[in-house]
């Protein structure tokens, strides 16, 4: 199949490095003489082009991607509510209605003479990409998530930046916690995987780290704090993943309109500690701060490697695959394999062992 024109979509939550991928895909494609367009807001630009003045796609040229590699966010926009195979709307009574409008997407791709699609996103986006590929579209996935929970790749871009920022925040909190003899409970993103909490917590010298993979006993955290107090170090840093789970307890969710999102575990831990330790206890929720800002050099490089590899895969005739980091190279993995499980922190891994050997309490 001859390639003349490809499209790029960015779906799900934003992550540092998205613009670097867009730049790499665009420049690599232009090197081969291909035209490149970006789909606005995930797939919404093709699903509802009438909502976008000037159309739902934008032409990507060397000029339009110049100077964007260091920028956070995505110049194309994104959404986590645009699944064309399960598009949700409300009827007159306010009930959620589920629709399969994937035919609109297919028609949009055909009308614009798009020969291949580069889909950038996390597990949800990769699942959608696989379904699109099953419809006969040539699709290459690029793994993106700050959570680092996408299977089949050693790392996803956005993760390193999130960990670096969280680590910097922990360093800042150390000084103020020390000054006031406080316990600082820091909640970080990560959904059902503890990669951000664990890596930032170890790098940032946390005293306790609570992750989804290890159900925690709050008394273990109390013991750690009281031990530090008794030794004259009357302050502590506790890192809590948003998906952390107390033994015998439940996950914590925050309501955002009709949608529930993980969140609130940091406050729950704080409320429990306030009646169990003598220190003043404060909560800091890093939340979406972890998604923003300039990508680190590592994330920027990984993004560009992924973007170039995606175009290379199209040129080699590949489809229905995801580019994946397998040091020292980038390999191709069937999209179907990428979303079968969440890549969680291995309990027998070196980072967990390191945390224990540094004396960090993990709640068990």
Q: What class would the helix/strand composition place it in?
A: alpha/beta
> How many domains comprise the coordinates?
2
Q: What is the averaged pLDDT score?
A: 95
The CATH architecture classification of the largest domain is 3-Layer(aba) Sandwich
Number of strands: 15
CATH class descriptor name of the largest domain: Alpha Beta
CATH topological fold name of the largest domain:
Rossmann fold
Helix content: 25-40%
Q: What characteristic shape results from the CA principal axes?
A: elongated
Structure report:
By secondary structure, the chain is of the alpha/beta class. It has two domains: 5-157 and 295-327, Rossmann fold (3-Layer(aba) Sandwich); 162-291 and 346-357, Phosphofructokinase domain (Rossmann fold). It is 34% helix and 21% strand. The chain has helices spanning 18-31, 44-47, 102-111, 123-134, 159-180, 195-203, 218-230, 265-274, 297-315, 335-338, 350-357, and strands spanning 5-10, 35-39, 57-60, 87-90, 96-99, 116-121, 139-143, 182-188, 208-210, 236-241, 253-256, 259-262, 280-285, 321-326, 329-334. The strands form four sheets. The chain has a seven-stranded mixed β-sheet, sandwiched between helices. A hairpin with a 2-residue loop joins β14 (321-326) and β15. The relative contact order is 0.17. The mean pLDDT is 95.
